[in-house]
Amino acid sequence: MSAQRSRLARVGRTLADLIWPPRSLLSSARVDRLGTLEPELWQALAFLHGPGCQRCGIPLPEATSPDIICPACLVAPPVYERARAALVYDDLSRPMVLDLKHGGRKDGLPAFANWMAEAAPFALEADQIVPVPLHWSRLWQRGYNQSAWLAHAFATRVGRRFNPDLVSRKRATPSQNGLSATGRKRNVQGAFVAQAAIKDQSIILVDDVMTTGATLQACTRALLRAGAAHVSCVTLARVVRSAKLDGVTSSPEDTLEPIDA
């Protein structure tokens, strides 16, 4: 029976592809398989595979050691152990991220999970993988939490426990859009609470985009208060400000920051 069901599933997928041809994650072009994109666009994506800060993961092209820490993290160490992202959030990746966040498009999740797993091999050692939560009112309004979708796909990919209910957002926070880094930090301060004791556990926190890291830091504090031994953060994409080992940084590209992170 299982072989028969498998054949029926393949036939069903073939018919579905004929009726609704799979489209690229970044264009209207037809592709061979759902949740993929054209080779030339895939090659153009800015994957974060190069040298970077050991803590926040910001690219540091001039770094000569994997243990380098960027000036920003030396001055104000993040409360999380490390943060990694698969992609730079830029003009090319932006539509793909927003299709997931605001369009509810799920066909890219397997690919996103693969990219995130490559960026964060340490996830294989985590006890639990947890999404950044939405407040219940925002969840009711939107109908889904795209970070929970990402976290579930990522947990499945790395074979770790997915726990969507470990952290909750206890108050509705205004949108982070347009806020300064200080404003973002103040906006989410104390907004999260862990729902269970997690003494000595290693937790991976998942979100769609890291902008200033304010949301991830606020969630991390809630997890540490609940007893977590280590909290690391993994996102699909991140806003990248040019960081240098001499401490000079460029200004953020504000036009690329419509993300509450």
Automatic annotation (TrEMBL):
Gene3D superfamilies: 3.40.50.2020
Annotated InterPro entries: ComF/GntX_DNA_util-trans, PRTase-like, PRTase_dom
Domain Phosphoribosyltransferase residues, every copy: 188-241
Residue ranges that the Swiss-Prot or TrEMBL entry lists as coiled coil: none
Domain of life: Bacteria
PANTHER family the record matches: DNA UTILIZATION PROTEIN YHGH
Family (UniProt): Belongs to the ComF/GntX family.
Record's protein name: Phosphoribosyltransferase domain-containing protein
UniProt organism field: Candidatus Phycosocius bacilliformis
